[in-house]
Backbone:
């Protein structure tokens, strides 16, 4: 029985009761993509949460409405929550949909990598460098009774982070302030990739032959540091001693000309990835990126109907 595993950034999926027709317009574009993927397990990013009358916490109303009438109707659903809270955040939650039961799930947010204090170079009090979102882990009960571990993640985009005193009346005070804030964004992105890798190490400690997939929007291409930290490939480590713990980037099975998930000002870039442990990678038979007709994010004005990210699908024996 094949396993179809996909990752898809839904581009701030939302629902407003004041404009239900707009949601239906988006759903009419997104549901055929879900049908084309026909995934058994689906990792989603940028799922917004909505307030409903009479409920104290937000819920993933938009996602549940999207699932209705789609190939994912009736799937098991788990999602991330706002760090420090019990309900989902208002924007950019992570979600995992599964045709098969989810034995357990949880999130990782500074559990293995504590917030790092940073003292601004231009003066001021130190601030902790915290991650924008948690990582979401799920243990899937696959039909062959061997568990499948999924880590869904959405790393910070390479845009300048908050810097106390860095802006004045909405503008950067100097190029030096902006450069420091941009550097801090890179630190956050690499540190969260490290936390994900440390969690993968814990999985391998208990299950040396674990079937692990790290899926999501890394906001980094294959040659960049966050991706390489997660992969831990022998050529980077200059040793084969830990090859059994490397994560294979499955996009390598896609033809070079089709190997992109985002278009930026005419340049194809690969920001979304599926990284697989050896036990899972050896069973991979096909990888597809559904990027036909993908809009260029640098030239889109107004709300996006579908998504500016193309989903990636991996099919395993």
Residues:
């Amino acid at each position: 029985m094949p396993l179809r595993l996909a990752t898809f950034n839904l581009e701030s999926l939302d629902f407003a009761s004041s404009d239900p027709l707009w949601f239906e317009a988006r759903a009419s574009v997104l549901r055929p993509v879900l049908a084309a993927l026909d995934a058994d397990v689906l990792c989603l990013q940028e799922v917004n949460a909505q307030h409903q009358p009479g409920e104290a916490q937000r819920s993933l109303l938009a996602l549940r409405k999207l699932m209705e009438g789609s190939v994912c109707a009736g799937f098991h659903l788990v999602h991330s929550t706002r760090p420090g809270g019990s309900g989902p955040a208002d924007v950019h939650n992570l979600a995992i949909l599964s045709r098969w039961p989810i034995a357990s799930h949880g999130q990782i947010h500074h559990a293995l990598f504590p917030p790092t204090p940073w003292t601004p170079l231009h003066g001021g009090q130190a601030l902790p460098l915290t991650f924008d979102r948690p990582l979401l882990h799920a243990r899937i009960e696959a039909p062959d009774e061997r568990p499948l571990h999924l880590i869904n993640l959405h790393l910070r985009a390479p845009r300048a982070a908050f810097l106390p005193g860095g802006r004045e009346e909405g503008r950067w005070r100097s190029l030096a302030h902006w450069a420091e804030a941009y550097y801090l964004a890179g630190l956050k992105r690499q540190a969260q990739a490290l936390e994900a890798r440390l969690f993968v190490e814990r999985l391998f400690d208990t299950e040396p032959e674990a079937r692990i997939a790290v899926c999501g929007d890394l906001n980094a291409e294959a040659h960049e540091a966050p991706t390489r930290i997660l992969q831990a490939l022998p050529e980077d480590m200059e040793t084969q001693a830990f090859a059994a713990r490397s994560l294979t980037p499955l996009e390598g099975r896609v033809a070079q000309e089709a190997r992109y998930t985002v278009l930026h000002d005419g340049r194809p870039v690969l920001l979304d990835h599926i990284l697989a442990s050896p036990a899972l990678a050896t069973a991979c038979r096909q990888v597809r990126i559904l990027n036909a007709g993908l809009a260029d994010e640098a030239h889109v004005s107004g709300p996006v109907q579908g998504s500016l990210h193309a989903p990636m699908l991996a099919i395993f024996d």
Summary: The chain has a mean pLDDT of 95. The helical segments are 20-37, 61-67, 175-206, 225-231, 234-237, 278-281. Residues 3-316 form a domain with the Deoxyribonuclease I; Chain A fold (CATH 3.60.10.10).
